[in-house]
């Protein structure tokens, strides 16, 4: 090839390489600029239609602080650069764009999306610790030091937002401190009961709690036999629900609904470490219960700011529920306690042996099947009896909207799960004697039985035979106190309890 022609091609190749390099630089600069632009707070605000997000961010300690430091949206909602930043940005941007263009923003449950369960998918622990390098600054108080020490020992299990959920978006109702004022706002202009209700027969009655304005309905449950557990072919059945055994249950009374905040706070106010009343001489009131110490103030807001009143009391420990029953027995003169597992299922079934005490197949209500995902399920019947994941709005509800079972009990299958007296064992029914009367489960164990579903449960988990158990360690992981509370759970808001009252010499049964 002639040298002149060779130089011509070399020049052309160099020109093409130069143009390509220049174009690459321009593309790279443009890409970087677009990444920077789409990472600004203003761009985030243009797509995110949260009605509260910008205002709550500007009121938070990540924007309004003594140091004058402003933490931007991407500083929390994307991982640090070099740790998957671009990948998560693309995934997050695609999801947000789809939601903005095709979803109904008015139908979003913003309160639920602000909960810890949802927030953990959009806040990165790596981003938190990138800024908060020193977990033990000089300004940290002793309680904070204990909490951060516990965190540093369990980093694989915990996230920063377990305790610091509202630092990025201010919530005026959120509390991250010992809540000494919890339950102090009592009811006024109501009758204060002086005596408990006298009961002399197995009939439904309204219990009155002495020295309070609180009363609640106890339903008479006739004794009888039933088959505990579920059939082998029942949809969503678990192994610990069998084998089925026929057992006998004596008559008893059971709370129409779960113990409400009204009821629990009557106990808390009369026995709590910060709530005892005194007379003019400084001694305990005669109406208080000797030898029963109630809960210490909770850390944070136990009702999750969903409301007190007739909503079921939640986040109290099994120990607190048992102590409540002892207190209630003392002030009423009756024998109150948690139900045995057999009593609970007998009362829940109310003479039925189907998956629910009402008509319906769990598969027909579930959204796990392809048909129901596409065409939806007919949930009319289950909606009227059960507060569960599909109709709860991701929080507890008052009992007035639920229809009762044939015995007259409400929310046995949903709203909140309920503690039982029995120790939990996976093989409990295998060891159960056929025809046993008033069985009480294993004589020892590590965790207690929990029955009934909650506002977060699926149709399969709100069946009459579904079983669960307490998870004491897991339910206290993010309690920042040292030692951890024996009264309040920090990591579960789906469990409450319901009381039973024995039909014995204190309630008219002279046998």
Series of H and E elements:
HHHHHHHHHEEEEEHHEHHHHEEEEE
* Broad structural category: alpha+beta
The total beta strand count reads: 11
For CATH, the homologous superfamily of the largest domain is named as paralog of FGE (formylglycine-generating enzyme)
Protein described:
The protein is α+β, with helices and mostly antiparallel strands and 511 residues long. The protein folds into two domains: 125 residues, Di-heme elbow motif domain (Multiheme cytochrome fold, Orthogonal Bundle), CATH 1.10.3820.10; 303 residues, paralog of FGE (formylglycine-generating enzyme), CATH 3.90.1580.10. Helices cover 29% and strands 9% of the residues. The strands form three sheets. Strands 1-2-5-11-6 form a five-stranded antiparallel β-sheet. A four-stranded mixed β-sheet has the order 9-8-7-10, covered by helices on one side. Strands 3-4 form a two-stranded antiparallel ribbon. The chain is elongated. About 3% of the residues have low confidence.
């Amino acid at each position: 090839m002639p040298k002149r022609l060779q130089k011509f091609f070399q020049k052309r190749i160099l020109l093409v390489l130069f143009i390509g390099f220049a174009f690459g630089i321009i593309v790279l600069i443009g890409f970087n600029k677009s990444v920077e632009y789409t990472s600004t707070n203003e761009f985030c605000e243009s797509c995110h239609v949260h009605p509260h997000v910008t205002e709550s961010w500007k009121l938070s300690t990540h924007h309004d602080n003594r140091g004058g430091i402003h933490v931007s949206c991407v500083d929390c909602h994307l991982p640090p650069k070099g740790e998957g930043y671009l990948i998560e940005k693309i995934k997050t941007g695609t999801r947000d764009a789809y939601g903005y263009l095709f979803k109904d923003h008015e139908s979003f449950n913003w309160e639920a999306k602000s909960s810890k369960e949802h927030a953990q998918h959009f806040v990165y622990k790596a981003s938190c610790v990138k800024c908060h390098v020193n977990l033990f600054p000089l300004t940290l108080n002793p309680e904070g030091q204990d909490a951060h020490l516990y965190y540093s020992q369990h980093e694989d299990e915990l996230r920063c937002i377990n305790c610091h959920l509202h630092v990025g978006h201010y919530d005026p109702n959120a509390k991250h401190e010992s809540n000494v004022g919890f339950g102090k706002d009592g009811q006024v202009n109501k009758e204060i009961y002086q005596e408990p209700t006298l009961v002399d027969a197995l009939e439904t009655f309204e219990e009155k709690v002495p020295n309070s304005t609180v009363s609640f309905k106890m339903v008479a449950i006739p004794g009888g036999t039933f088959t505990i557990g579920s059939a082998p072919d029942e949809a969503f059945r678990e192994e610990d629900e069998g084998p089925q055994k026929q057992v006998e249950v004596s008559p008893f009374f059971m709370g129409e609904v779960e113990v409400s905040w009204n009821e629990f706070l009557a106990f808390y106010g009369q026995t709590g470490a910060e709530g005892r009343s005194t007379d003019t001489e400084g001694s305990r009131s005669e109406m208080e219960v000797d030898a029963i110490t109630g809960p210490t103030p909770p850390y944070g807001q136990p009702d999750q700011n969903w409301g007190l009143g007739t909503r079921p009391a939640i986040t109290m420990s099994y120990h607190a529920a048992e102590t409540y029953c002892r207190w209630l027995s003392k002030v009423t003169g009756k024998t109150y306690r948690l139900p045995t597992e057999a009593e609970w299922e007998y009362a829940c079934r109310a003479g039925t042996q189907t998956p629910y005490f009402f008509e319906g197949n769990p598969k027909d209500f579930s959204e796990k099947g392809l048909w129901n995902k596409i065409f939806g399920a007919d949930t009319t019947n289950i909606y009227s009896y059960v507060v569960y994941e599909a109709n709860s709005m991701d929080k507890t509800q008052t009992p007035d909207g639920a229809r009762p079972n044939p015995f007259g009990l409400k929310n046995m299958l949903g709203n909140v799960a309920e503690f039982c007296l029995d120790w939990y064992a996976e093989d409990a029914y295998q060891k159960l004697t056929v025809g046993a009367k008033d069985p009480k489960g294993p004589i020892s164990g590590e965790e207690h039985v929990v029955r009934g579903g909650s506002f977060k449960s699926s149709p399969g988990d709100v069946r009459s035979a579904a079983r669960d158990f307490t998870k004491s360690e897991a339910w206290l992981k993010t309690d920042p106190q040292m030692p951890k509370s024996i009264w309040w759970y920090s990591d579960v808001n789906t469990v409450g309890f319901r009381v039973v009252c024995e039909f014995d010499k204190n309630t008219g049964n002279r046998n």
